[in-house]
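task queued by scheduler; priority normal; single chain, no ligands, no partner chains; default sampling; output format set to structure tokens
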Amino acid sequence: MAACSVEELLAKAEREEAEKLKSITVHKELDVEFDIGNLLACDKNRIESRDFRGQKKEDFLRSLARDNTQLLVNEIWKQPTERVEEAIVVKLPDSLTPLPREKPPPKPRPPTKWEEFAKLKGIQKKKKTNLVWDETAKEWRRRWGYKRAKDDTKEWLIEVPETADPNEDQFAKRVKAKKERVAKNEFNRLKNIARAQKIKVPGVGLTPTAQQSKDDLSKAVSVAKTSTASVGRFQDRLPKEKPPKNTGKKRKFEPLIGNFSNEKQKQLDMLKLMDSKKPKLDITKAVNKQMREEDREEAAAKYKKGAGKKGRKGNMPGKGKGKGGKGKGGKSGGGKFGGGKPVGGKFGGGKKRGKAGKH
């Protein structure tokens, strides 16, 4: 019995080992259809109900999924490969099965200014090694980051240049220059993002432009003055300097601790107004509104009347075939408009004919 049990255990261990180390070659009655672009495999082989019922459902499904996945992986590695950053990747072909999308496919990222310049000049990106030799430490160190080679921040002594101020702190100057570089890089990064999104770069009038207007310069001056600790309260002004425009008003808040009578009165007035049945009417505002509407209607009526007179033709005396031009009125009156009977009122002399040339 002991020998049988040992043999059974060995046979079970062999089966488990064989289960773990299955062959990569899988045989199917019908070939599995692949869509490598979508990493899709369609198995049209018939599933025998006896095998499905005889084995455990989970074991049968796990075995079937393993075989189909192995066939998909075999088909993937038949595609062309390349090495990218110490890793082997496969170039997938175009997908054959159209799949619906909730949103349209993302557009390719537009190139930055440096990428456009590099493409124009033919500059190619070269891969740099991460480690460089540090002469000071006599060892290989990282090119960037923590414990990098040629780390000038660890220097305890800095030589003062001949053109620099001898009393100037060179360590503080170096820290300030680094902060400015970091800020400039961050600003360029945000500009690239705004340019990719096709939106305007947010600014306060200090961004460099080709031609700055008067408003931009005044805004820049106001920003520079209010960038102090006192928000420009103690900044001196020029004799004829005008206050900045569109700066906004400072909000005022009631004190949190103190006399609450004003707040109580405001709340009571608001409740009284809400509880009143008749709405509060501002007579001055209502009268002004009515007067503006009347003036607008009167101006519209005058405009329509003037437009109607302007469109008529042939009403002027002395033109066309009217009586005032070559008729009776032409004998008596001198000048452009005759003084005959047909032309009376405004231009003619009526029944009483005047002297020639005087009207």
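post-processing summary
- The mean pLDDT is 77.
- Strands lie at 33-35, 40-42, 81-83, 88-90, 131-134, 139-142.
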